[in-house]
Amino acid sequence: MRATVRIFSPSSPPQAISNKPMGRKEKLTAMTQTAMLTAVMAVLAQIAVPMPSQVPLTLQTFGVTLCAWLGGKKTGVPALLVYLAAGAAGMPVFTGFRGGAAVFFGYTGGFLWGFIPLVLLCAAASEKTNRLPAVLAGGAGLLCCHLFGILQYSAVSGSGLWQSFLLCSLPYLLKDALSVLAAYFAASSVRRALRASGIHI
Predict the structure, then answer these.
(1) Residue 201: pLDDT band by 50, 70, 90 thresholds?
(2) Domain map of the chain by residue range?
(3) pLDDT of residue 22
(4) More confident: 191 or 85
(5) Considering only the top CATH level, what class is 27-193?
(6) Rounded CA separation 200/4 (Å)
(7) Which one-letter DSSP state was computed for residue 106?
(8) Are 134 and 184 a contacting pair, CB within 8 Å?
(9) What does pTM read for this prediction?
(10) Could you tell me which residues come within 8 angstroms of residue 145 by beta carbon, excluding any fewer than 6 positions away?
């Protein structure tokens, strides 16, 4: 009878060791992390500079993608859904301490809808060990987010698509791209620090 020895490299990416359902402790931990990430989104959304286009300059994109990179599919995606649901229910979690379903159909509502594909792509890419595919996925998600924003801004304001792009997308595109990139590296640093402390998210 031969014994099989498996050697794991410390630099290897962490792999799931079980497909068993989460226990009560794991569920409580996931719920706590989801609530914390939702709070981060709400707080960063309030750091805003008003703009003439009715679309403020905010850290919301950074906050949303930071939580997606950190929490992944397990807690990042649920955190966004809780954030959007809380805002739709009237809680003042959106930029400018706004809330209510009407925000989803206003000038900036398209970007709220666009956060969904943005977070889904970032969360899926958070499991990749190669930086380039992860960053490209984040970029694709950002383009989807801006497309949603342009379409709704055009519909609400009555402006053409090109004019809407110039007003609500182009002035923010570079800032948002840097936000996605910064969020990726910030999340990587936080993950390493937490894992060094024995905390896994």
Answers:
(1) low
(2) 27-193
(3) 64
(4) 85
(5) mainly alpha
(6) 28
(7) S
(8) yes
(9) 0.83
(10) 61, 111, 114, 115, 117, 118, 176
